[in-house]
Amino acid sequence: MIYLTLGKAIRRGVPLYKGVHDNKPPLLYILAAISGSLFWFKVILAIWSLVTVFVFWKLTKALFPQNTKLQKVATLIFGILTTIPLLEGNIINAELFMIGPIILGFLILLTKKLSNKNIFISGILFSIATLFKVPAAFDIPAIIIFWLCTMPLNKKGIKTIGKNTLILALGFATPIAITFVWYFLRGAFKEYLIAAFLQNFGYLSSWRPSETSKPFLVKNAPLLLRAGIVFLGNLILFWKRKRLSRQFILITSWLLFSLFAVTLSERPYPHYLIQSVGPIAFLFAMLFTLKNFEQILSIVPLTLFSFVPVYFHFWYYPTSSYYVRFIKLATGRITKDTYLSSFGRNVQNNYKIAEFVSNSSWKEDKIFVWGEDSSTIYALTKRLPPGKYVATYHIKDFSTPDELLATLMKDPPKFIIILPNSDPPVNLIFFVKTFYKHIETFGGAQIWSRPSPVK
After folding, report:
1. Which of 306, 212, 220, 213 has its CA nearest to residue 259?
2. pLDDT per residue over 102-128, tens digit each?
3. Cα Rg for the chain, rounded, in angstroms?
């Protein structure tokens, strides 16, 4: 819902990051702007996902050209895990878009001549993935480890690896540098740098707020420990490189770096794990189809992967009930209201609020919503807020009640909606009761209308 709201803002000429805020690089919001609605956004995702599965299949053929069974098993696992609700593959997330360019980058580096042009193009693809979401950048070192383990480490080989790495880095830096130039020319360089990149550092260990005041090494000890595990795992791969296949080295290193990216924030969102689905699909396929030592050895990285969602208590979304529920709706066994309510207690109410606001205002009118589902209301109504924040938690994190009040005074919205159990600040309540009139209530959500100009 945040993505669609920012997409709507872009379509109306609102400058991204300066006029409307979220903390990801721009490509996801640009796709949301191109789509214009949830339906077309999902159409774009469906096409993108089909292409991604095809590219992954091509990668399986490149890595295991003689093992058709492994190719089919790996592609099947990959296709399923990137689409079912288990890992939130059924909803639009940056991970679903970024894994495609990553896989294509690997495919070029493994199947094409390692010319400067091909390496540079691969770097661009990794950069495109990062412009969907920053953790994509952590997959890049896997190819460097692969080069170190498979190329001769004489003077010429080390020089080649160094040159390739530099060209890869230049390709990676180029699209990102272009975005910085673009937002500089738009007068939003600072906002872009902070929102899309620097604010992501705040996510590190953000689910351990009690430790934010502790010394750096103490606060970040778990992160440093995970970095140590990644380093140790790659060191073992390098040490045993002559006894391991090139496929196992690349896949395991890829998994190690992707898991580090997945656990950066220590947040338990299942869609984070999508970044690791590529190597996981390969490892399961190796376990199911190979008949050599690496069939057994694949259990080691798979065990490490299994440890992550358990240790970090990743949330779980049921899969079968999702499709059963849709079948019941499609066959008329449940009503639309029952269907919507089954997704959460506020869903049906949000649709009622959105319908009322949409029917009672023009598309150019602004509204302000306070509460957990604020971005949902903005997206459903296709209305924008008067300020840059479309999520209430962004206001709490990056603004103050006084700044909020100043924004509302400067550009008073037509409607102010206070969602239930949202604990609005005192000055917001005072502002609403002073300048607005209560006109409707839906399930505890209060809708206030501006009867006259605010002075």
Report:
1. 306
2. 999 999 999 999 999 999 999 999 999
3. 24
279 and 146, same structural domain?
Answer: yes
Q: In 3-state terms, what secondary structure has residue 383? A: coil
**Containing structural domain, residue 375:** 345-449
Q: What is the edge-to-edge ordering of all strands in the sheet holding 367-370?
A: 367-370, 415-418, 445-449, 437-442
The three-class DSSP label of residue 135 is helix
Other C-beta atoms closer than 10 Å to the C-beta of 406 total 13
Answer yes or no: do 288 and 154 share one domain: yes
What does the pLDDT look like over 142-181, one tens digit per residue? 999 999 999 999 999 999 999 999 999 999 999 999 999 9
Burial of residue 132, with CB atoms counted within 10 A of its CB: 0-12 exposed, 13-18 middle, 19 or more buried: buried
Q: What are phi and psi of 449, to 5 degrees?
A: -115, 145
Token digits for 205?
Answer: 């260990």
The per-residue pLDDT for range 301-336, each reduced to its tens digit, is: 999 999 999 999 999 888 999 999 999 999 999 999
pLDDT, position 221 = 86
Q: Provide φ and ψ at 452, rounded to 5°.
A: -150, 160
Question: Would you place residue 215 in the very low, low, confident or very high pLDDT band (cuts 50, 70, 90)?
Answer: confident
CB 108 within 8 A of CB 122: yes
Compute the distance between CA of residue 69 and CA of residue 82 in angstroms, rounded to an integer: 20
Same-domain status, 425 and 299 = no
- Residue 262 pLDDT > 80: yes
420 and 284 within one domain: no
Element (H, E) at 164: helix 155-185
The verdict on residue 316 lying in a domain is: no
Dmax over CA atoms of the chain, in Å, equals: 79
Question: What pTM was computed for the model?
Answer: 0.93
Crossing angle for the helix pair 277-289 and 299-311, nearest 10 degrees? Answer: 140
Give the strand pairing for 415-418 and 367-370.
parallel
Which residues lie below 8 Å from residue 232, measured CB to CB, with a gap of 6+?
none
- Joined together, the tokens standing for residue 69 give 């069974």
Render the burial of 31-62: b for 16+ CB within 10 Å, e for the rest: bbbebeebeebeebbeebbeebbebbbbbbbb
